[in-house]
């Protein structure tokens, strides 16, 4: 394969990616990020054409060299800006402009001031190296919201690109100060284009994969989150419960489960309307989530006005205390919605998950039976199950706290 064929393949590949990214810049959730990435691909294609079509490569004139390295600088800074938008942090406009302009300004300035071409190239490539390394770093950083496997692909491609640039700087330095000054910069255009082609393709494929992985992850989140309260739904709770089962088996820590049901919730809807009923559910969910231990307990809406909590590393006695504090938190603080004051109470059934096996479904059944006893006994109370397996009515230990006020 000759250089012209490789250049043609490189331009065709970039053309295809420009088309894909251009469509994504209007259709994708991350349209702003894809606009930056589209500009980056277009800029790299123009820069590539200017670089390898110049017979004086790599010793460009100050004007043309400044233009080329400015285009390449902004091509890199656009990848960086797009990644910042994709992962959440705001784009620092000053840094974006500096990263884009500095390579071209340094090259043009050094050449205009009469610096040796090799020195000008070294200084310029050092700035390009910095921008590429900074851009690569954004793809290796874990964010609280998500971490996508394709980030490694993009980050690794940019890191390898940075290594290639660094190697070129070292080779120039060796030739200048060790071998012979002003001997002319050796260049292998074929190798340079080949490396650029491989790394750019990996980068662009990785960026597309990132958007697809994010969409898939978001669909999974939507399927496991209750849209009204923002807590996990029944499926989400079940999935999280299975996820913690292995860790619990190894650690042999106790674990308990409770089901909380808002008392007389239908009466709230009938008296105040469904909008107020939804507000009660959201406020109860907020209090329940705040009352739980973040990162340890699993909290979710089990269905209707029922909520389920899995208390990690918590024995039955401590779980009952947790439930009692929650009951008081709800019954003693009225729910305020504008001028409407709604008094709400909650009945709670508590069960301990078996210490030998992770019997989630059976623990739910036990807690549900305890909840039924709490409802039958007058509501606004906590009932715990003395055993998590083989539960019968005698195995229920009812904790009478106070009679329902509603």
Topology, please?
Layout: H1 3-27, H2 31-53, H3 62-87, H4 93-112, H5 117-140, H6 150-179, H7 189-224, H8 234-251, E1 255-262, H9 265-272, H10 274-291, E2 298-303, E3 306-312, H11 316-331, E4 335-337, E5 340-342, E6 346-352, H12 360-376, E7 382-385, E8 396-399
Parallel strand pairs: 6-7
Antiparallel strand pairs: 1-3, 1-6, 2-3, 4-5, 7-8
Helix pairs in contact: 1-2, 1-7, 2-3, 3-4, 3-5, 4-5, 5-6, 6-7, 9-10
Notes on the protein architecture:
With 406 residues, the chain is an alpha+beta fold. It is 64% helix and 10% strand. The protein contains 12 helices and 8 strands. The C terminus is likely disordered.
Question: What's the story with the biggest beta sheet?
Answer: 6 strands, mixed
Output the helix-strand order.
Answer: HHHHHHHHEHHEEHEEEHEE
User: In angstroms, what is the radius of gyration?
Assistant: 32 Å
Relative strand content: 5-15%
Dominant shape? elongated
Q: How many DSSP helices?
A: 12
**Straight-line N-to-C gap:** 84 Å
- Poorly predicted runs of 5 or more residues: 387-406
How many DSSP E strands? 8
The average pLDDT score comes to 85
**Strands of the biggest beta sheet: in what spatial order?**
2-3-1-6-7-8
State the share of residues found in helices, binned by percent: 55-70%
What would you call the structural class? alpha+beta
């Amino acid at each position: 394969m000759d250089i012209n064929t490789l250049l043609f393949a490189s331009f065709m590949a970039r053309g295809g990616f420009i088309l894909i990214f251009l469509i994504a810049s209007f259709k994708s959730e991350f349209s702003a990020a894809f606009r930056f990435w589209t500009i980056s691909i277009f800029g790299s294609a123009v820069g590539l054409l200017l670089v390898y079509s110049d017979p004086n490569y790599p010793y460009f004139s100050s004007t043309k060299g400044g233009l080329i390295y400015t285009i390449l600088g902004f091509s890199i800074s656009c990848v960086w800006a797009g990644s910042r938008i994709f992962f959440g942090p705001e784009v620092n406009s000053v840094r974006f402009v500096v990263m884009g302009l500095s390579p071209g300004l340094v090259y043009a300035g050094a050449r205009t001031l009469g610096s040796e071409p090799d020195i000008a190239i070294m200084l310029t490539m050092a700035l390009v190296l910095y921008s590429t390394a900074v851009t690569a770093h954004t793809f290796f950083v874990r964010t609280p919201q998500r971490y996508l496997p394709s980030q490694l692909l993009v980050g690794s491609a940019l890191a390898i690109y940075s290594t290639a640039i660094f190697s070129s700087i070292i080779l120039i330095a060796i030739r200048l100060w060790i071998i012979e000054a002003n001997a002319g910069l050796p260049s292998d255009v074929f190798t340079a284009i080949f490396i650029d082609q491989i790394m750019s393709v990996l980068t662009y494929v990785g960026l597309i994969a990132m958007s697809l992985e994010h969409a898939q992850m978001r669909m999974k989140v939507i399927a496991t989150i209750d849209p009204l309260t923002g807590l996990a739904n029944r499926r989400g709770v079940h999935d999280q419960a299975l996820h913690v089962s292995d860790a619990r088996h190894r650690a042999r820590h106790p674990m308990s489960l409770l089901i909380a049901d808002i008392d007389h919730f239908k009466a709230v809807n009938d008296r105040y309307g469904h909008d107020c009923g939804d507000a009660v559910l959201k406020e109860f969910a907020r209090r329940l989530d705040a009352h739980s231990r973040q990162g340890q307990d699993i909290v979710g809406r089990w269905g209707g006005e029922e909520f389920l909590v899995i208390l990690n590393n918590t024995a039955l006695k401590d779980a009952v205390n947790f439930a009692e504090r929650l009951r008081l938190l709800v019954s003693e603080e009225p729910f305020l919605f504008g001028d409407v004051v709604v008094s709400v109470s909650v009945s709670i059934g508590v069960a301990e998950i078996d210490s030998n096996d992770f019997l989630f479904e059976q623990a739910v059944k036990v807690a549900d039976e305890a909840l039924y006893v709490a409802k039958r006994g007058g509501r606004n109370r906590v009932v715990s199950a003395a055993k998590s397996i083989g539960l019968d009515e005698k195995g229920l230990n009812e904790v009478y706290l106070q009679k329902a006020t509603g």
